[in-house]
Amino acid sequence: MMRCIFCKQDSSTSRSVEHIIPESLGNSDHVLPAGTVCDGCNNYMAREVEKPLLDSLYFRERRFYAGLTNKKKRIPPLDGIHLQSLTHIQLMKTPLESEISIGAAPNVDEARWVNSILNNKSSSIIMPIGTMPDDYFVSRFIAKVGLEAIAHRVINVSGALQEIIDKPELDELRRYVRQGSPGSIWPYSFRSLYLPDAIFNNGHEQYEVLHEFDILITDQNECYVV
Known about the structure:
Elements: E1 18-19, E2 31-32, H1 39-54, H2 57-66, E3 78-82, E4 87-92, E5 101-104, H3 110-119, E6 125-126, H4 135-154, H5 160-166, H6 171-179, E7 200-201, E8 206-207, E9 215-217, E10 223-225
Antiparallel strand pairs: 1-2, 3-4, 3-6, 4-5, 7-8, 9-10
């Protein structure tokens, strides 16, 4: 019998594979087989843990400029204001094109924006800048990735997943991901590793790093997901 690493319930009939990093952040490789996380926990975490993060302006900006699509294969637009006409506009990209287009947002007076563009020699656009999302959502997301990263590391070791599920030391982590605790936010550290447009070269091809994770274990046997 398979059991979910989060709720510990029977997950033998679950069909959803679990993406450790969401697909909307460019991950198609680091996944856990169906049943490692049950369908119920998979759906809950997509809705309550990942979505608030992905919908934040901070992550929408990064997904936009990196050209990362959602499950509908669309790049989320960025919202702004055309100052001269006070029109709600959007920056848009398509997956197959690197150029950015600008247009009036849906359901606004496009004619007012077009007339302003035609009748003014210059125009200004104001774009909000995203700051880091709420600590509560970031820490729950990291906690979710942490447990799944451990499971991913030992997925092919006989009996290892069962040991993770039965470890009482991980129960507080499970509860925080599955139920949350707004009054008590688990601490985390944050720093940038690469510039957003950093290009790497391995001698054969150029590439960008969209995401990566690792597990660090200290001499005091403390375990960190990075």
